[in-house]
Amino acid sequence: MSLPTGPELESLLESEEAAMYEDLFDALPAALASELGLEASRVGGALRMTARAFDHPMFNRVLAVDRRFPANLDSDSDHSPGPGRSLSPRDAAELLGNAREHYDAAGVRRWMVQILPHMESDALREAAQEWGVVRLRGWVKHLARAEEAGRAVTSRGSGSSAHLRGRTRSGDTSTPQLHVIRLDAEEAEPVGELSDLVETWAHIVVDGFGLPPSFGPWLSALAGRERWRLYAALHDGKPVATGALYLPRSGPGSFGHLNFAATLTEHRRRGAQSAIIARRLEDARGLGAEWIFTETDEALPDGPNPSQHNLIRQGLPIVYLRSNWGPPKPEE
Q1: d(Cα 19, Cα 104) in Å, to the nearest integer?
Q2: What is the domain range of residue 273?
Q3: Which of 13, 17, 149, 219 could crosslink 315 through cysteines, CB 3.0-4.6 Å?
Q4: For residues 86, 90, 96 and 101, what is the CA-based torsion angle, rounded to 10 degrees?
Q5: 286-331, pLDDT tens digit by residue?
Q6: Strand (E) positions, the chain?
Q7: Can you say whether the dihedral through the CA atoms of 189, 193, 194, 197 is positive or negative?
């Protein structure tokens, strides 16, 4: 199956990403959702996530805006933003204004609205000024056909210090120092009990993303869900890095999403994430995914992003940059 290009491709990938987050929130235990003020809801077609107990844009953001936002617009109105259209002055003012009012009411200072390239306009920038919003660091979208991603292997260093950067023809996704496992697979049984491995996996994700420790049970609840597969890189038999694969369906037109990549500080830049990427690509192919995609922070001159380079080396090029708009980061 070939994919559309331009605005249609952007809209398709946003829709797939939003569906993944809806499944993530479906795994959220009700008591924990109430305690932490966590919720995700469709607003005019866009997905709006809120985390009152975690003042950070990761879970306080609006995405898939291309799906007709704001909510008070009639779905048949010519005024509603749709695929291929930039934001008009009214669109932009209502979009940012609604987000500002919602997050202010929730007591959240740090939030963002994610805007696709084809939707940016002078009207958006003018509305941002009006609502005290600025352009934050963007996110880039990576995409590749599953059969083509991760096929090449390159190394850093030589001899025993070389690290895997792709996938060997034999399917080996380990290094002399690292071994990647899927937590719910038979290969994980000698490492430890599944419940203990999942708890450690969640702890590494919480630490890597700077999440509150109370998010751990939510992340642990992903284990055993039909669409999710959780991975860990082991060093000396202990988990030191994580990743997940979300695959809602297989066959033509199916998308696998790579997420929750985190590494313990003392084990970073040692090839763990490259090995986990390679393993997830291999598994996604075996499970019948046609396409693989994910997101990372855009690389900036004063803020490089190793994850972006890892993905590009593994054959997942950048297909577009999604700009993020929200209040300036408060002074520490």
Answers
A1: 26
A2: 149-314
A3: 149
A4: -160
A5: 999 999 999 999 989 888 888 899 899 999 999 999 999 999 988 7
A6: 38-43, 46-51, 61-63, 112-115, 134-145, 178-182, 228-235, 238-246, 255-263, 291-297, 318-326
A7: negative
CB 260 within 8 A of CB 243: yes
Q: Which structure tokens are listed for 279?
A: 């393993």
Given a contact cutoff of 8 angstroms between Cβ atoms, the answer to whether 70 and 95 are in contact is: yes
Mean pLDDT of the chain: 87
Please name the amino acid found at residue 281. Answer: L
Handedness of CA 99, 101, 106, 109 (dihedral sign): positive
| Measured CA angle at 237 (ends 226, 162), to 5 deg | 100
Global pTM value: 0.88
pLDDT tens by residue, 155-209: 333 222 222 333 333 344 555 578 999 999 999 999 999 999 999 999 999 999 9
In this prediction, residues 110-131 reach a mean pLDDT of 96
Assign residue 290 the CATH number of its domain.
3.40.630.30
How many C-beta atoms lie closer than 10 Å to residue 72's C-beta?
9
> Does any domain span residue 323?
no
Are residues 44 and 179 part of one domain?
no
- Token look-up 């991975």 returns 231
DSSP per-residue string spanning 285-318: HHTT-SEEEEEEEPPBTTB--HHHHHHHHTT--E
Considering the domain architecture, whether residues 101 and 239 belong to the same structural domain is answered as no
Nearest Cα to 257, choosing from 222, 214, 233, 218?
Answer: 222
- The Cα 143–Cα 26 span in angstroms is 25
Which string of b and e fits 125-159 if b means at least 16 CB within 10 Å? bebbeebebeebebbbbbbbbbeebbeebeeeeee
* Residue 323 neighbours by CB under 8 Å, 6+ apart: 114, 115, 117, 120, 135, 138
- Report the half-sphere exposure of 87 (CA within 13 A, side-chain side): 29
Nearest to 324 by CA among 144, 109, 61: 61
